[in-house]
Write a structure and sequence with these properties.
Number of strands of chain B: 8
Shape of chain A: flat
Distance between the termini of chain A: 40 Å
Largest interface: A-B, 68 and 81 residues
Strand content of chain A: under 5%
Structural class of chain B: mainly alpha
Number of helices of chain B: 19
Largest sheet of chain B: 2 strands, antiparallel
Structural class of chain A: mainly alpha
Strand content of chain B: 5-15%
Distance between the termini of chain B: 73 Å
Strand order of the largest sheet of chain B: 1-4
Low-confidence stretches of chain A: 36-45
Number of helices of chain A: 11
Oligomer: heterodimer
Helix content of chain A: 40-55%
CATH class of the domain at 48-125 in chain A: Mainly Alpha
Strand order of the largest sheet of chain A: 1-2
Largest sheet of chain A: 2 strands, antiparallel
Helix content of chain B: 55-70%
CATH superfamily of the domain at 48-125 in chain A: Cytochrome c-like domain
Amino acid sequence: MKKLSARRRHPLAAIVVLLFALAATGGLYAAFAPAKSAQAEDAPSSLAVEEGKKLFLSGCSSCHGQAGQGTSDGPSLIGVGAAAVDFQVMTGRMPMQQQGPQAPRKPTAYTQAQADQIAAFVASLGAGPSVPNRDEYALNGNIQEGGELFRTNCSQCHNFSGEGGALPEGKFAPPLKDVDPKHIYEAMLTGPQNMPSFPDAIMPPEQKKNIVTYITGVTKDEPNPGGLGLGRLGPVSEGLFVWTIGLGLVIAVTIWIAARTPKARTK
Amino acid sequence: MASTHADSAATGPIPDNAATKTADYFDERLGFYGVAKKNLRKVFPDHWSFMLGEVALYSFIIILLTGVWLTLFFKPSMEEVVYSGSYVPLQGIHMSEAYASTLDISFDIRGGLAIRQIHHWAALIFVSSLFVHMFRIFFTGAFRKPREMNWLFGFLLLVLAMVNGFTGYSLPDDLLSGTGLRIAEGVVLAIPLVGTYLQFFLFGGQFPGHDIVPRLFTIHVLLVPAIMVALVTVHLALVFYQKHTQWPGAGKTEKNVVGLPLLPVYTAKAGGFFFIVFGITALLGGLVQINPIWSYGPYTPDQITAGSQPDWYIGFLEGSLRIMPNWETNLWGHTISWNVLIPSLVVPGVMFTFIAAYPWLEAWVTGDKREHHILDRPRNVPVRTGFGAAWIAMYLVLWIAGGNDIIATHFHLSINSITWTMRVLFFVAPVLAFVVARRIAMALQRRDRDKVLHGRETGIIKKLPHGEFIEIHEPLDAEKLHVLTAHEQPAPAELPPAVDENGVARKLKPGQKLRVRLSKFYFAEQIEKPTAEEFKEITSGHGHH
């Protein structure tokens, strides 16, 4: 203790206290942060619609109604089609954890097989877009045209590099990195949550394919030719970087240079 | 030969080699020996904060060098071309020559991307170092007589740097820069009466037209840099002529400069520092991506991207536009767009006029006509420090508001609540910052006073024979005592008596009342610094608390 009290006025004491405080805050947060939600177990079935209905009744009907007709807590699912179910369930957006401005992407609660069953059940409620087949979202479209379409239709919300952007009242356009091409295609087809839909009559499948090719090829797979990407967020992260690292380095050097001076002898 | 250095022969043997001969040749024609003899002994004080202006100077030189290189390859033209360079996702796309040549610089010209990135990073460092340099000048009162004019030159350099940064940002004609130009066009249009005429004059017709990029190019590479080089020259010449300010300290007076002579140490340090700054910008340019124009795509007015922001130094304007309520007035068929006019012209106009005019404002309030070469420690002028903090707070609020969408997505907040918070903070934060900074400054003065009278707390506890515990205080040395007590404490101005000696009501000059009130605001509440008597009385005693 004596040692400690002798050093409490050391110039570095404040920094040490700060480090302890930060470590304690981080530790407490890690201890109290909510754990991940549990996974539902597999249940293979031959009668997809029947099994899907069971899953729907237990997992979806409290908000969407027993016949998918919708309630005050969730919209009607009649006519949304299998593609919408596949997108919402397999990106983890549905079932929702809590009501909020927008359902965020999270780990999926169902397997693909279960999602297919729910999709089959919802598709049986009314005709809607079906899950696209593998050819439709293959990554062999025209990347240049995809870029033009992306900048015309998508970048105003999802950002030029697909990093996502803000919408009013806490809603947002999610980042597109690491999104399965199939789910990008389904999102365009069905217009989930706050996104407008681009049905085939408005945007032919060929154009959707080009966009998927562009998003995957450019925003996801392309390296940053200039070096560290800074999150590809544009000037905000560049400005933050220059004021912290850039100017920080320069000022550290000025202090270093000024500290190494043959001091004028006054005594 | 011998006759030319007859006078210097006295100091020792002059080597008779090629270098001496060359130097002699030029001296006989330009006469620089005399100039050099006088000026190379010029003394500069040494402190890290005095080197912030150097950072600005060096990054400006880096910008000029890399900028010249970029002009060799950039084509300032809005002619439409079809891209056929090596960046696959844009091949076959129609775009302007300006954008295509910037893509070529980035992908097809050796070292092009590195130079472009160094140019851009150096520009960001340039403007930020200008700001911190000005903060240093402001908070230490280095702008006081005789340096008010140089403050103004520096201020002009800051404004021109921002203008030139924006024109440079607009040149590549990518989606981001086109969006920025579109906003600039909106600002021009919002100017009452002449807005539409100005817009037509500037763009040569409807937006975007074909004229704007070549015009911006001339402004960016010729007009503004030429003015800036001239201003930098005058700025430095004045620093040289008026000599550098210095911190208070033992042996430092208003009539001398304590420091190192220009040659050899100072020059060596400054020269080395240039290369370090160059090294840092080169590292950033080589390792950290900036403005990836290929990702934005070519500009067309019907496209836009989320997260469209200007470079950081225009960010406060973006923010002030973003938080402004949508107010418009319709008068006789003409719209006055308060929603653009106020945030993009009135707010920055007031904020920057305040900076430019501050030296004269303060001199008027204090009535101080003397020259000042010793700097103020910011704590010793709490009101000025408070004003500086308030200005920074207001700027910060606007700046943060300019990134409200990025903050919303990254911290999972509602963009509407951020906007409303910033609207309130725009008015509240400067007041809070003023009060807090002023209080902190005064608290630090109290601490200084305490240190002078009672010495430094050592943290060593002594137990006296009768059981009392005391902390040992160590008296400060004379040099420290001087620093802590060297400042002046001017008394606030007073109004003359209401009637003169003949009993006639005195007439006050216009503004005199306001001046006295402001002077009281500046100086009425002061932490009296310890007098010599107080110091003697306390230090002659037992030495503890």
